[in-house]
From TrEMBL:
Gene: catA
PROSITE patterns linked to this entry: INTRADIOL_DIOXYGENAS
Source species, domain of life: Bacteria
Cofactor dependency: Fe(3+)
InterPro entries: 1_2-CTD_multi_dom (IPR043029), Catechol_dOase_N (IPR007535), Intradiol_dOase_C (IPR000627), Intradiol_dOase_core (IPR015889), Intradiol_RC_Dioxygenase (IPR050770)
Protein name (Swiss-Prot/TrEMBL): Catechol 1,2-dioxygenase
Any Pfam family: Dioxygenase_C
Domain Intradiol ring-cleavage dioxygenases: 108-136
Metal-binding recorded as keyword: yes
UniProtKB keywords: Dioxygenase, Iron, Metal-binding, Oxidoreductase
Family statement drawn from the similarity comment of this UniProt entry: Belongs to the intradiol ring-cleavage dioxygenase family.
Coiled coil: none
């Protein structure tokens, strides 16, 4: 049996009271309760519970934990990270993808540094993203397992460079219980296109974050990201690539884009964020 836990008891008791108060305030009927009960049971059964939790609650606790601290801004991890993505060892780094992977090629480059600007050699960048159809491999869609997921290490000067494709905006599946719920609330189900990262380095706090692309329709402050996880510092400009040497390094023959970001980590416990 579990033992009394003061923190859990304090927070959970207040959450339960808040729900009970709202049931009373709105005179929720027994038959309405049965409908909601069925929907919640279906949510759990569908496997979308992690998605639902991250959509409605993760950005609140992420902001409470990290806002106002120096260094790169964090944001939500979301439900689509998979551990153990392959460590890419052969430069130039290319995220695992199909030979005919749809989407505009993009070279993502930058550095990982400490707050004082010192380059962090051997920092681990775990990167994952949706494809050009807005889906994450291993969840829905027809991309092979592990597609557009990989880990790379920074070089001696703290820099990195990896080629991938530009992700599409993400839409919560309309047919599932989370999408159904958003429809009932009159809300759209979109997130702006984004890259995901977990960046770790010995002696530094892990940085869980995302980068977005300026001009994206779903960045709108009023009617944008359904998850509410965008922060201004995480929106980057992408430019057209015009470096033939860079293009040939990756075997790119057509147009491609370049995105840059310098990640700044706080010193601290590598196991806590
Ligand atoms: C996503 O792709 C995502 O990143 C988050 C945080 C929630 C739902 C879908
Ligand atoms: Fe995502």
């Amino acid at each position: 049996m579990a033992e009394y836990h003061e923190r859990v008891a304090t927070v959970a008791t207040d959450i339960l009271s808040a729900i009970q108060e709202q049931l009373e305030k709105h005179n929720v009927t027994h038959s309405e309760y049965r409908v909601a009960w069925k929907w919640l049971a279906g949510l759990a059964e569908s496997g979308e519970l992690p998605l639902f939790l991250d959509v409605f609650f993760e950005s609140v606790v992420e902001r409470l934990t990290h806002d106002g601290k120096p260094g790169s801004q964090g944001t939500v991890q979301g439900p689509y990270h998979l551990p153990d993505a392959p460590l890419l060892t052969e430069e130039p780094f290319v995220l695992p993808m199909r030979d005919d992977e749809p989407g505009e090629p993009i070279v993502f480059t930058g550095s990982v540094r400490g707050l004082d600007g010192s380059p962090l050699e051997g920092a681990l960048i775990d990167m994952w993203q949706a494809g050009n159809d807005g889906t994450y491999s291993g969840f829905v869609g027809d991309a092979p397992p592990g597609n557009l997921r990989g880990r790379i290490r920074t070089g001696a000067d703290g820099t990195f460079q990896v080629r991938t494709i530009r992700p599409a905006a993400y839409q919560i599946p309309a047919a599932g219980p989370t999408g159904e719920f958003l429809s009932l609330l009159g809300k759209h189900a979109w997130r702006p296109a984004h890259f995901h990262f977990i960046i770790t380095a010995e002696g530094y706090e892990p940085l869980i974050t995302q980068l977005y692309f300026s001009g994206d329709r779903w960045l709108d402050a009023g009617d944008g990201d359904v998850v509410g996880a965008v922060k201004d510092d995480l929106v980057i400009d992408v430019r057209e690539g015009d470096d033939p040497e860079l293009a040939s390094r990756y075997g790119l023959t057509g147009p491609y884009q370049i995105a840059e970001y310098d990640f700044v980590l706080r010193q601290g416990d590598a196991n806590v964020s």
